[in-house]
Amino acid sequence: MAPSYSTTPSVPTIKPVGLGLPEAVVPFIDQAPPLPMDPIEKSKRLAAYKAVDNHVLPEHRVIGIGSGSTVPYVVERIMQQGEEVNKGRVFIPTGFQSKQLIVEAGLGLGDVDQYPTIDVTLDGADEVDHLLNCVKGGGACHLREKVLAEAAKTFILVADHRKNVQYLGTNFAQGVPIEVVPFAYAKVLQNLHHILGSPKATLRMAVKKAGPVVSDNGNFIIDAPFDREHMIDPYVIMAQIKMLTGVVEVGLFCKMAKAAYFGNEDGSVSIRWLDGKVEHIVTSPSRS
Ligand SMILES: O=C(CO)[C@H](O)[C@H](O)COP(=O)(O)O
């Protein structure tokens, strides 16, 4: 019986020898064109590649690697800069996922307690507003992400066009991620509901595990949605949340990034700079 084949791109090259297939089928398998890339993945890759090209310079030695689904393309592009430049570098992860990426790529691994000054950190975002405030922590990594953002001389955000919004909370409606020490979660929730004006704040529950999500630091995550009024200038609510006893870090990063790169569906990249400028760059296919 002929074996069945998956057409997903991750399937390794099929060796026709010994499969017992008719001759005519073999060239077809060998020459099957790769599946087209999903447009959102393409947008993520565009943003990541352009950001690396512009901000990860040959002289950079200490590089922060953030979390999320756009960051693998950051590492991919850094690898394309070549072994020679990368062998002198150390890469600092924002959590388990980025540590795996660094290790699997064979890059040098370090930590922020060894390198409290980082040349450049590139990271994803859940949403970025027109003033470069952003929500982070959809992946529960925002504590380490904020430390690496603060440690970086240059902090750059990379995302697809869905994250590019006027005001936070437009598309990412689950709320502001808040990391809390486990025993304080109920009190923090009560304060969010009754004092800070987030009646729908909830403890983030795990999928495929009974109970709450536990961060890489052993803490719980609360997701607290706030209305538009709070999100117009999120610094105030960020500071108020951070003042609640038991809160470790808030997933609102207010004007910490120098620029945010958004990949667009038409193959262009929009770059939003901290000084308010917005650039629109059309990339050539060979560089994306
Ligand atoms: O803040 C983060 C994790 O804590 C991520 O950067 C953010 O959730 C974006 O992830 P993705 O690119 O997968 O949407």
Would you give an account of this structure?
By secondary structure, the chain is of the alpha/beta class. The chain has nine helices and 14 strands. The strands form three sheets. Strands 2-1-3-6-12-13-14 form a seven-stranded mixed beta sheet, with helices on both faces. It has a four-stranded antiparallel beta sheet with strand order 8-9-7-10. Helix 2 (39-55) crosses helix 3 (71-80). It is globular, with a radius of gyration of 21 Å. Residues 66-70, 123-126, 136-142, 145 line the site of ribulose-5-phosphate. Belongs to the ribose 5-phosphate isomerase family. This is Ribose-5-phosphate isomerase.
In terms of topology, how is this protein built?
Layout: H1 25-31, H2 39-55, E1 62-65, H3 71-80, H4 83-86, E2 90-93, H5 96-104, E3 118-123, E4 127-128, E5 134-135, H6 142-151, E6 152-160, E7 176-180, H7 185-194, E8 202-203, E9 220-224, H8 228-231, H9 235-242, E10 247-250, E11 252-253, E12 259-263, E13 268-273, E14 278-282
Helix pairs in contact: 2-3
Bound molecules: ribulose-5-phosphate.
Ribulose-5-phosphate is lined by residues 66-70, 123-126, 136-142, 145.
